[in-house]
Amino acid sequence: VYGATNCVGVVKRGRWLPALQSPEGRQRAVLAGLSTMVLMSAVFGNILFAQSPISLRFFNPHTASYWASRYRPGERSRLFFAEVRPLVPAGASVSATEFAATSFAAREDDYVFPDEVGQVEYLVVDTRDRWLAGRLREKKMTLGRALSDPAYEKIYDNAGFLVYRKGFPAESGGS
After folding, report:
1. Which of 125, 131, 130, 160 shows the shortest CA–CA distance to 145?
2. Distance between CA atoms of 144 and 149, rounded to whole angstroms?
3. CA–CA separation, 48 vs 164, rounded Å?
4. What distance lies between CA 160 and its chain's CA centroid?
5. Which residues pair with 138 in a beta bridge?
6. CA-CA distance, 141 to 120, in Å (whole number)?
7. Which residue, 144, 149, 143, is CA-closest to 119?
8. pLDDT at residue 164 above 90?
9. Cβ count near 53 (within 10 Å)
10. Helix (H/G/I), strand (E/B), else coil: 122
11. Under a CB-based contact definition with an 8 Å cutoff, are residues 120 and 142 in contact?
12. Distance of alpha carbon 78 from alpha carbon 85, whole angstroms
């Protein structure tokens, strides 16, 4: 407030006019004006359009940026953490799609599907994962081919989540 009052006094007294008469003064004024414009655009753009807590849209339930629709876990997340994740024992090696892989990231043997298929004990695949098609295309394979290894048995299939466990000789003995 005191600075704004001082600026008004400077403008009224015309002390800034001599500074604009030199080329360096004009250059500084243009640079200050552009810098102010960029800063104000960033601040107002963030307030009006960003997906952050300083945005007005962040708290409006009628926008796509509403915090609850973006950050509150949905039904699929609850299903994953309640049913899918507990199927993979703590020390087991796993190859999982991007969304699921973050849940297993602290493990020593955690891979992003389809890496290490045939080597790991568990495969966790979210067929609705937005990155799955790109990863399969990268590896020049289809989902069916990636999951066709006869060493794996399907132990879970619900809501687009697939969990496969590698069969162990002790388990395949008919018990």
Report:
1. 125
2. 9
3. 46
4. 20
5. none
6. 18
7. 149
8. yes
9. 8
10. strand
11. no
12. 10
What is the C-alpha separation between 13 and 165, in angstroms, rounded?
A: 81
Reply yes or no: is the peptide bond before residue 86 cis, omega within 30 of 0.
no
Alpha-carbon separation of residue 6 from 1, 13, 155 (angstroms): 9, 11, 74
> Are 146 and 137 spatial neighbours (Cβ–Cβ below 8 Å)?
no
Alpha carbons 2 and 107: distance in angstroms, whole number: 57
Q: Which among 13-22, 72-81, 96-105, 148-157 has the top mean pLDDT?
A: 148-157
pLDDT-wise least confident of 53-62, 115-124, 150-159: 53-62
pLDDT at 167: 82
**d(C-alpha 147, C-alpha 118), whole Å:** 9
Query: For residue 122, what are the β-bridge partners?
Result: 94, 165
